[in-house]
Amino acid sequence: MKIRYKKKQRKSHKKYGEKYRGYGQVGRHRHHPGGRGMAGVKDHMKLMLMKQGYELGKYGFTRHGTKLSYETVNIGEIYEKALDGKIRYYVEDGKLVIDLSSKRHLKILGRGRVEKP
């Protein structure tokens, strides 16, 4: 004897007999019910976005172009850094000549005192 089980029906089976299957005559399951893209993030989508951790809005100014980061050195530290080998130097006529042209992006700040000529 063969036992037959009833096959599970799809959820759409409930909609049999309804002409438009719950989508209406005019729209017919087309268009964008919540709006396109990020539309409505300040209205009907706000709670959903807050739960996901989004922060809305713009902050600050936008800087266009490339950012240059400068290595800074105080004028009082140049002598110490030269002796440590971080900055190139040579001795000419008993004076220390420091070569800063090798550093491409170097900003010299005015703090400190120059003790050696």
Fold blueprint:
Blueprint: H1 46-52, E1 71-74, H2 78-84, E2 88-92, E3 95-99, E4 106-109
Parallel strand pairs: 1-4
Antiparallel strand pairs: 2-3
Explain this structure to me?
The protein is of the alpha+beta class. It has 2 domains: 12-56, no CATH class; 71-109, no CATH class. The protein contains 2 helices and 4 strands. The strands form 2 sheets. The chain has a two-stranded parallel sheet. A hairpin with a 2-residue loop joins strand 2 and strand 3 (95-99). The relative contact order is 0.12. The model has no long low-confidence stretch (mean pLDDT 86).
- What fraction strand? 15-25%
Side by side, the strands of the main sheet go 1-4
One letter per element, helices H and strands E, the order comes to HEHEEE
Number of helices: 2
Looking at how many chains there are and whether they match, the oligomeric state comes to: single chain
N-to-C terminal Cα separation, in Å? 111 Å
What do the pLDDT scores average to?
86
Rg, please? 36 Å
Q: Largest sheet, described in full?
A: 2 strands, parallel
Q: What is the number of domains?
A: 2
